[in-house]
Amino acid sequence: MEILFGDMRKETNKNEKVYDAEVLESSTLDENVIIKILVKAGRTIAKPALEVLEMTIDPYTPAQVRVSLMAALAYLIMPFDLFPDFMPLVGFSDDFVALTAVLSIWSKYMTPSIKSKAEKKLNKLFPNF
Questions:
Q1: How distant is the alpha carbon of residue 95 from its chain centre?
Q2: Sequence-distant (≥ 6) Cβ neighbours of residue 18 within 8 angstroms
Q3: Over the stretch 73-127, which tens digit does the pLDDT of each residue have?
Q4: Cα Rg of the chain (Å, integer)
Q5: Rounded distance, CA 42 to CA 65, Å?
Q6: Phi and psi at residue 41, to the nearest 5°
Q7: DSSP single-letter state for residue 129
Q8: What is the domain partition of the chain in residue ranges?
Q9: Number of Cβ atoms within 10 Å of the Cβ of 102
Q10: What is the DSSP letter of 26?
Q11: Taking the mean position of all CA atoms in its chain, how far away is CA 103?
């Protein structure tokens, strides 16, 4: 699976636009890093994050959708963002907003299968809920 990243336009003709993009392998998306952060962040953050993760790796998700989904996951991974993750109470609130925003924007690509896979991972991470 390949993930399209970036959008650079070149004008070749008045009516024709050519798009160049940097392509990333899905193996560059390290799920273990995300899982470690989710355990620390808690179930409330983990649910939308896992849905975003599953939608990102789903082969039927369009490439342009994956770019914004990966941006939201990257924002989650960054320890120093609007509210640094180590701040009590508010540390992950901005991450939650970013994750739920992309889920809302791209909700038409959310399938029952994606939700189910995310829910299974969520229950593995937090079995006592």
A1: 11
A2: 9, 10, 12
A3: 888 888 777 777 677 677 788 888 899 999 999 999 999 999 999 999 999 999 8
A4: 16
A5: 26
A6: -75, -35
A7: -
A8: 28-125
A9: 22
A10: G
A11: 9
What's the rounded Cα separation, in Å, for the pair 123 and 43?
Answer: 9
Question: 58: which DSSP letter?
Answer: -
Over 61-116, what HEC string results?
CCHHHHHHHHHHHHHHHCCCCCCCCCCCCCCCHHHHHHHHHHHHHCHHHCCHHHHH
Give the number of other CB atoms < 10 A from CB of residue 96: 16
Both structure tokens of 43:
């179930």
Q: Mind listing the pLDDT tens digit for each residue in 14-25?
A: 555 544 444 444
Q: How many whole angstroms separate alpha carbon 102 and alpha carbon 73?
A: 10
- Nearest Cα neighbor of 96 from 58, 29, 129, 51 is 51
What is the rounded CA–CA span in Å between residue 83 and residue 41? 13
Instruction: List beta partners, residue 9.
Output: 19
Which amino acid, 21? A
Residue with tokens 């896979």: 117
Instruction: Please identify which residue in the block is written with the tokens 């901005």.
Output: 94
Closest CA to 49 of 94, 96, 87: 96
